[in-house]
Amino acid sequence: MIFTAKIDKTALKGTPVKLEGNYQEVGNYAPLVKVTTPDLQEKTIGGESNKAQLIIAVPSLDTPVCDAEARRFNQEATKYENIDVTIVSMDLPFAAAKFCNVAGIENLTVGSDFRDKAFARTYGMLIGDGALQGLCARALFVISKDGKIVYKQVVPEITEEPNYDEALTATIDAANRGASCCGFCQ
User: Hey, which of 37, 86, 126, 179 would disulfide with 20, CB 3.0 to 4.6 Å?
Assistant: First the structure.
């Protein structure tokens, strides 16, 4: 894992918010972390995979912006077989299960980082101060099949939605590049 002094920036209603953890940038190997799914199983995200990964960090699924973001990516995820989409928040798995049932989320995985905040700390997305301290910042990471971070978007204002088109384009591009096995097919 690479740690640098660089700091991502975000804000809550215009007020700067400090982010804590290990700064990850495009080109880094995506660290492996485990999140808890609504059925209390562990899912490993990051690292090499046979699919490109889109990791979506949100503060809480119980907010209008996070709800809209989850629904949009759930809809987009149905279009691609070679993309693994995971939304990560600090919501308890029980709350995430309820959210998925109400919102009809079936095409992506919802992962909770509540146990040890491994994702938020490892990817530098832990909100370190203010009203949302202890939650994840709103961000997107695209991980290529070979485990590299190929796209990163930290949304500058937590109360706003991300740039969907840019993130989806990067994810589709990563999914269409080679295979994770040996690279011969690239």
Answer: 126
